[in-house]
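User: Let's play a game. I give you a shape written as tokens, and you guess the letters that built it. Ready? Here's round one.
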């Protein structure tokens, strides 16, 4: 089993810009490090469940019934639009803090659901993972280990993005900059929403 080669393959995939990356950065800049960390945890849980289902062969359902992933992607896009609208309205430190406090549990579950039913992640496990196994009939522990490596690498990349965005947010959220910055980030959320719609419907 080539676990090191697999880890490098996962890293190359994860550093390629995608909806998860854009969502985590935009969310952290808009609502703070805590929201970003909770979203990262949700993404990790969703990817771990996706990997577990893949090891059992259940993720083939997502491949054979792509409509499931399509509706999840559309739902993710609608959620991004809602976050954008909320961010556009919250233009002061106090209002944004209140809204962020209410929304943190939602971003955790959003990360779980979006990545649990992530068709691209399922395809990755079904097509790429077998190339790094020890043989055509590997033990289940090998598949689970590669799943853990995939989730671990992805989570490290996501954490670095969230922590970096958190540092940047400290600079951008000075009182005289809060309103304009939040409106720019709201527009960024609209771009992320369009990205989700394109990924789901394209």
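Assistant: Ready! My guess for every position:
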């Amino acid at each position: 089993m080539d676990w090191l080669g697999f880890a490098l393959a996962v890293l190359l995939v994860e550093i390629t810009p995608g909806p998860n990356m854009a969502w985590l950065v935009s969310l952290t800049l808009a609502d703070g490090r805590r929201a970003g960390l909770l979203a990262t945890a949700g993404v990790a849980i969703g990817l771990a469940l996706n990997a577990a289902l893949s090891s059992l062969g259940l993720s083939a359902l997502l491949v054979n019934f792509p409509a499931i992933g399509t509706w999840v992607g559309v739902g993710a896009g609608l959620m991004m639009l809602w976050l954008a609208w909320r961010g556009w309205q919250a233009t002061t430190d106090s209002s944004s803090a209140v809204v962020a406090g209410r929304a943190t549990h939602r971003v955790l579950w959003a990360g779980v659901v979006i990545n649990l039913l992530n068709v691209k992640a399922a395809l990755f496990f079904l097509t790429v993972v077998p190339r790094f196994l020890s043989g055509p009939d590997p033990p289940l522990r090998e598949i689970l280990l590669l799943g853990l490596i995939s989730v671990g690498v992805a989570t490290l990349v996501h954490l670095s993005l969230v922590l970096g965005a958190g540092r940047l947010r400290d600079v951008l959220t000075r009182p005289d900059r809060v309103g304009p910055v939040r409106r720019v980030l709201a527009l960024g959320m609209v771009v992320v929403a369009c990205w989700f719609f394109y990924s789901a419907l394209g």
